[in-house]
Write a structure and sequence with these properties.
Layout: H1 3-13, E1 32-37, E2 41-45, E3 47-51, E4 57-63, E5 78-84, E6 91-92, E7 103-106, E8 112-119, E9 122-131, E10 137-142, E11 151-153, E12 159-160, E13 167-173, E14 183-187, E15 194-199, E16 208-211, E17 217-221, E18 224-228, E19 234-239, E20 242-245, E21 251-255, E22 259-263, E23 270-273, E24 279-286, E25 292-299, E26 305-311, E27 317-324, E28 326-331, E29 337-342, E30 352-360
Antiparallel strand pairs: 1-30, 2-30, 3-4, 4-5, 5-6, 7-8, 8-9, 9-10, 11-13, 12-13, 13-14, 14-15, 16-17, 17-18, 18-19, 20-21, 21-22, 22-23, 24-25, 25-26, 26-27, 28-29, 29-30
Length: 361
């Protein structure tokens, strides 16, 4: 599995991110200064799937000899571990006998999370579990979504509704864009039953789905991110490849050539980061307190990536790492650090995870 495929996967699986964020910190939490940060420290190997709510660890996906069955494309099977950020011994995520892998999606009611697995961006498995602050997952249940015949569930679009009672996703016709339009659906996390919400206009597909605090939907299609009413009609649209919803679900950032901020109900976006010639922003994610955004911007010519943080109050831009093969950047659950992957080379294919800790003021 080369770094290009891993980078595309990392971009894909984090397009819809409000459900992946932790709860905002308490009001008396110290102010984080993103301009002050330590040298990145390696914490382990494997692809980052998420972070624990308490900020102590990262969910990481890595092959393990204990699971010898072949996985995606015949490669060694990967399973999810909880890796402490202090470099301590990692442990298997979930309950013994139920190995997990895939993107961890937070936001379910009662502390429920979803784990969404995919192979080459094609959906393969869905688990629902209960999560504790330190990342312990229990009551793990496999759920099989009732996807209609001739349709495929887009694994990258799975997220929780604003009330946390159901999952949202897009299902797309196998012959898209020439087949039937894509559908936005709600998934019952207990039974896997699907309820169609609305069709999305014909095109190349749906790449992200989310819901705001007033139940308005957000949908990312080909180069357009739009607010949608309950019947699927467009309220406002913005040029971009993807989006992330803030922890309070009242704002979102839209990314593509630029990074822009949009409040719910607005039809005009505020620029946060201007276009950089020859580059595109492939992912963006809010901090747990909603005061900053981390984003990944890559060179169209070389594919090399830079990871940066922008503070929303004053648009201060801080470059964290540049010029490498990076991805999967996420704030830790307490917002005091950042984790990211560095993808391997042709001579060393290992995917490594790093943590960068910020100063406080």
């Amino acid at each position: 599995m080369n770094w290009l495929r891993l980078n595309r996967l990392a971009v894909c699986i984090f397009l819809v991110l409000a459900a992946c964020g932790a709860s905002p910190p308490a009001d008396d939490a110290p102010t984080i200064d993103y301009r002050q940060f330590e040298i990145p420290q390696r914490v382990g190997t494997g692809l980052i799937d998420g972070v624990t709510p308490d900020g102590s660890a990262v969910y990481i996906e890595d092959p393990d000899p204990a699971f010898p069955e072949p996985g995606c494309e015949g490669q060694p099977e990967s399973v999810m571990f909880v890796q402490p950020l202090d470099g301590g011994q990692r442990k298997l995520a979930g309950e013994i006998g139920v190995p997990l892998k895939g993107r961890l999606v937070r936001g379910g009611s009662g502390g429920r999370v979803a784990v969404v697995a995919a192979c080459e961006s094609f959906f393969t498995d869905l688990f629902i579990a209960s999560e504790l602050p330190d990342g312990a997952l229990s009551k793990v249940e496999r759920v099989k979504p009732a996807v209609p015949d001739a349709f495929l569930l887009n694994a990258s679009t799975v997220t929780w509704t604003s009330d946390g009672n159901k999952l949202l996703a897009a299902v797309q016709h196998v012959d898209a864009p020439d087949g039937d339009p894509a559908q936005i659906v709600a998934i019952d996390p207990g039974t896997g039953g699907l309820t169609k919400l609305f069709d999305v206009e014909q095109g190349t597909g749906v790449f992200g789905v989310g819901q705001m605090d007033r139940n308005e939907y957000v949908v990312a299609t080909n180069l357009v991110v739009s607010f949608r009413r309950s019947d699927g009609t467009v309220g406002a649209g913005f040029q971009g490849q993807g989006f992330d919803i803030s922890p309070d679900r009242r704002r979102l950032v839209v990314f593509g050539k630029q990074l822009r901020l949009v409040a719910q109900g607005d039809d005009v976006a505020t620029s946060l980061v201007e276009e950089k010639p020859g580059h595109e922003i492939s992912a963006a994610r809010f901090s747990p307190d909603g005061k900053a955004v981390v984003f990944e911007r890559y060179s169209l010519g070389t594919g090399r990536t830079e990871i940066s943080v922008v503070s929303l109050s004053d648009k201060t831009l801080t470059n964290i790492v540049t010029g490498g093969r990076y991805g999967s950047a996420l704030f830790t659950g307490d917002g005091r650090a950042l984790v990211f992957n560095m993808f391997g080379s042709q001579t060393d294919a290992a995917t490594r995870a790093y943590v960068v800790r910020f100063g406080a003021s």
